[in-house]
Amino acid sequence: MSDAAPLIRPTRDEDVAAITAIYAHHVLHGLASFEEVPPPAEEIGRRRAAILEHGLPYLVAERGGRVVGYSYAGPFRPRVGYRYTVEDSIYIDAGEVGRGIGRLLLQPLLDRCTELGYRQMVAVIGGRETIASIRLHEALGFSHMGTLDAVGFKFGRWVDTVLMQRALGPGSTTSPEPVAGSKAP
Fold first, then answer.
1. What is the rounded CA–CA span in Å between residue 118 and residue 98?
2. What is the pLDDT of residues 117-128, one digit of tens each?
3. Which pTM does this prediction carry?
């Protein structure tokens, strides 16, 4: 493990294997995803392509030539009325957790989504005990919007989700312009 700050860059096709491995760890050992079986690299590649087809950012943190985390913004919900709202996802390599990589990945995600014209970002955080993710989002201006009690079942127990939200750019203070570079109507 190097102490050098990781490089944050857009994802490339060759990152899919590392992204798959990072995600698999979280599926098997954490609450960041409510999936229970890690999807294969082909499925992760398909999901990544769908995000990129929307014109949304998908970033990786790379240290010493190795992907140590990734983040992306996806459409919040499919209905057209939600077209100015995105949801963030952040996953960090298990050996790199607690080293500030989440913040390094989330800030440029916020910046890029703002540049694209999105107005709200939502975080749906698995498990109210996932304090590191909650604190990260708080530090970058997200507010608690509520908790959905016992909406997931994983590891033999009921799991809550914490909902957080942050305005992007002018938020809801003005009418939106069409989202730049996006497939959103």
1. 29
2. 999 999 999 999
3. 0.93
